[in-house]
Amino acid sequence: MRLELQEVSIRHGAIAAVLGVSLTVESGTVAAILGANGAGKSTIMRGIAGLVPLHAGRILIDGRAIENLPTEQRIRDGIALSPEGRRLFPEMSVHDNLVCGAYLRRDQTGVRADLDKVYALFPRLAERRNSLGRNLSGGEQQMAAIGRAVMARPRLLLLDEPSLGLAPAVIHVMANAIRRIAATGVTVLLVEQNSHLALSLSKTGHVLESGRLVRSAPAAELLADADLKRAYLGDDPLALESLAASPPPV
Ligand SMILES: Nc1ncnc2c1ncn2[C@@H]1O[C@H](COP(=O)(O)OP(=O)(O)O)[C@@H](O)[C@H]1O
Ligand SMILES: [Mg+2]
User: Fold this and answer.
1) 193 lines ligand 1 (CB under 6 A)
2) 198, 223, 225, 229, 243 from 234: Cα distances, Å
3) From the alpha carbon of 40, which atom of ligand 1 is closest?
4) Between the N and C ends of the chain, which has fewer C-beta atoms within 10 Å?
């Protein structure tokens, strides 16, 4: 599914969180939005999912405007969000959390098949299927949050900070899962502060600063860019490992 944002602005009361952002994610590709904490990344994702209204601009999927549709309709149209902070139902099992992702679907056979696919994608979740959300590790919660979004059978998957606070080994599991989801033809828009990781998964990268898009370029170009490297990626080529090993920002 092709996603296009046209001059999108989003306000939180008096705060202009997103200002005139235009970008396109081609169907079947992975794109990343990079930027510091507070840049407006999550606000854009929530705007696409219909969880916050636009102040101005348009959002098109396959050329059709959706910015005035309610969230449920956007889910039906194939948009699913794995939100920042995972937000599982803490008193529900992994299995029930996953099935919740399919709450708008009526094809029970397809839902059961997709559940098996999620467990194949994340074998750890199959082992933990009867555990309550609140008893999962951070990595397991993130797997379940992505799995729940996949259960909606999206054509556009929005992933907000899938690597945040996770250990390197778990980040590898996450990265491989995202590659496998993308290989099925799902369009993926990824938000990350871990720029190395995001760009290594993406075809295109978009850099957000204080709500404005300051750069859009092929991921390889951004990875090689010296200025960007200083600003966002750090000087250490192994920054992915060190970033991943550092504690999550509070
Ligand atoms: N619900 C909210 N109410 C008020 N301000 C918010 C809300 N959510 C985010 N903001 C503000 O909007 C800006 C962008 O936030 P956010 O989209 O969460 O950034 P990011 O995801 O890039 O860290 C920040 O200044 C943040 O403080
Ligand atoms: Mg955020």
Assistant:
1) no
2) 14, 11, 11, 6, 10
3) 17
4) C
So where are the chain's domains? 3-245
Number of helices followed by number of strands (H, E) in the chain: 11, 10
Q: Ligand 1, closest atom to CA 37?
A: 23
pLDDT, tens digit (0-9, with 9 covering 90-100), for 126-144: 999 999 999 999 999 999 9
Instruction: State in words which class domain 3-245 has.
Output: alpha beta
Full-model pTM: 0.91
What spacing in Å lies between the alpha carbon of 16 and ligand 1's midpoint? 9
* 114 Cα: distance to centroid of ligand 2 (angstroms): 28
- The amino acid sitting at 184 is T
Which residue has the least CA distance to atom 16 on ligand 1? Answer: 40
What's the confidence (pLDDT) of residue 231? 66
pLDDT at 249: 46
Q: Report the distance separating Cα 204 and Cα 231, nearest Å.
A: 18
Q: State whether the beta carbon of 47 lies less than 6 angstroms from ligand 1.
A: no
